[in-house]
Specification:
By secondary structure, this protein is α/β, with parallel strands linked by helices. It contains nine helices and 13 strands. The chain is globular and about 55 Å long.
């Protein structure tokens, strides 16, 4: 084989190798991108039974199943992710997950940082006390009483309007606060209506609601400000699961009623 021919053949093989390597890299890059797009990662505390909590080491609850149904409609794989509630929004902004489906109430303050979907359920803040408590007959009786609330929740501000600031006790979860009612360390707990009603239904603790709801809230799915396309997809998917009856089935399973229609 002459030298010129050998060099040409070598150059041809080298060029072919570079071309194939480039194609392989491009294919791998596209595959990774496609894989990312197929996952719908949504955050929650994992401590908010019956909305999102762990059972036998697996995340379950109303929020988890709503996320699964929405992901299915979007043609994506649902991946629920837990994160401490007090840093839930920061976690999303750091791109640990794509959205928050964790029973987050829409507030003007939060709207400065994130965008929200259409509501996926409605509820409100409610005072709960022990069922055998005869001394507290209205929220006006809470002055000077110890009230339990979840950290970094709107309930803290509400509690401080009803009692002294030093009487407001913060907890990592609503259920932990409610469990402190029978101990006598708390006189009342302010939490979401649905949480208290579920506890009453299960008779885990003998509690009752005190007075009318303190507020009426919309719970929605939070996304980053720049993720406008994702927000549109989520709203479309949410509308679809409401129309086709999927939402009703999930809501009835956990609460025995449609909690989006709460007024």
């Amino acid at each position: 084989m002459n030298r010129r021919y050998s060099i040409s053949l070598f150059a041809l093989v080298l060029m072919l190798s570079i071309f194939l390597a480039a194609c392989g890299s491009k294919k791998e890059g596209n595959s990774a991108k496609t894989s990312d797009q197929k996952e719908f990662r949504y955050g929650m505390s994992g401590l908010f039974k019956p909305f999102n909590f762990k059972e036998n080491g697996k995340l379950t609850g109303f929020d988890v199943e709503i996320g699964q149904a929405i992901a299915k409609k979007m043609g994506m794989k649902p991946v629920p992710v837990t994160n401490p509630w007090e840093t839930m929004i920061q976690g999303m902004l750091a791109k640990k997950y794509d959205a928050i489906i964790g029973s987050m109430t829409v507030t003007e303050e939060r709207l400065k940082t994130v965008n929200f979907s259409n509501p996926y359920y409605r509820s409100g803040s409610q005072v709960f006390i022990m069922a055998d408590n005869k001394k507290l007959t209205s929220v006006s009786d809470l002055k000077g009483k110890k009230i339990g609330v979840v950290k970094e929740s709107p309930y803290g501000d509400t509690a401080r309007t009803l009692t002294d600031s030093d009487k407001v006790v913060e907890y990592d979860s609503d259920l932990t606060a409610l469990m402190d009612l029978p101990t006598g360390r708390l006189d009342a707990v302010i939490t979401d209506q649905m949480v208290g009603f579920r506890v009453i239904k299960e008779k885990a603790i003998h509690i009752k609601d005190l007075g009318k709801p303190l507020s009426q809230d919309n719970q929605a799915i939070a996304v980053r400000k720049e993720d406008k396309a994702l927000l549109e997809k989520i709203n479309k998917a949410l509308d679809e699961i409401i129309k086709d009856g999927t939402y009703d089935k999930i809501s009835d399973k956990w609460f025995g009623r449609n909690i989006l229609e709460q007024k």
